[in-house]
């Protein structure tokens, strides 16, 4: 049985492990291997501790917890980044990762449904997120969850390779 709750500081190591392993599994063949190989749980956890304890942080973190296993998924959401040209009332899912051995078991869906529920309760009327072009599994997942590409793109550079992200949106 898996349930979703707010992330707390004790979850940081598990969330970093989920995020790093998630990147390495989901982005193999898309993001340069040198970048993926350089990722470590320890470095991610150190950055996450700083970020998690930042005063005035407006993002929210959720974890999916499996009985007897601890956190097996993580989602972070909140308002669009400062300066983003989003309509009033829009929120953004910044990240969603599931332990690679549990992808396709409903953990990600439960996290996303809970995030949508909380976003509506916080007054958001729409949700946006960014998906790496070519990440077909993620694109199918978000499309099944009611998201549609809105035509916006942004580029990120990983080890001198430019990759494009596509923005997806859905009403809440």
Layout of helices and strands, plus pairs?
Blueprint: E1 2-6, H1 12-26, H2 33-38, H3 41-52, E2 60-66, E3 70-78, E4 90-98, H4 107-121, E5 126-132, H5 136-144, E6 148-158, E7 161-171
Parallel strand pairs: 4-5
Antiparallel strand pairs: 1-2, 2-3, 3-4, 5-7, 6-7
Give a quick summary of the entry.
The chain is 33% helix and 34% strand. It is an alpha+beta fold.
Describe the structure.
With about 170 residues, the protein is an alpha+beta fold. The chain has a single domain, classed as Aminopeptidase (3-Layer(aba) Sandwich). It contains five helices and seven strands. It has helices spanning about 10-25, 35-40, 40-50, 105-120, 135-145, and strands spanning about 1-5, 60-65, 70-80, 90-100, 125-130, 150-160, 160-170. It has a seven-stranded mixed β-sheet with strand order 1-2-3-4-5-7-6. Helix 4 (about 105-120) links the parallel strand 4 (about 90-100) and strand 5. The two termini are about 25 Å apart.
List keywords for this structure.
single chain, 172 residues, alpha+beta, Aminopeptidase, seven-stranded mixed beta sheet, 5 helices, 7 strands, globular
Assign the structural class, choosing from mainly alpha, mainly beta, alpha/beta, alpha+beta, or little secondary structure: alpha+beta
The main sheet orders its strands as 1-2-3-4-5-7-6
Strand content: 25-35%
User: Could you tell me the number of beta strands?
Assistant: 7
Order of helices and strands: EHHHEEEHEHEE
CATH superfamily: Gcn5-related N-acetyltransferase (GNAT)
Q: What is the residue-averaged pLDDT? A: 94
Task: Provide the number of structural domains.
Answer: 1
CATH architecture: 3-Layer(aba) Sandwich
Q: What distance lies between the first and last C-alpha atoms, to the nearest angstrom?
A: 26 Å
**CATH fold-level assignment:** Aminopeptidase
* General shape: globular
Unreliable sequence segments: none
- Biggest sheet details: 7 strands, mixed
The top-level CATH class is Alpha Beta
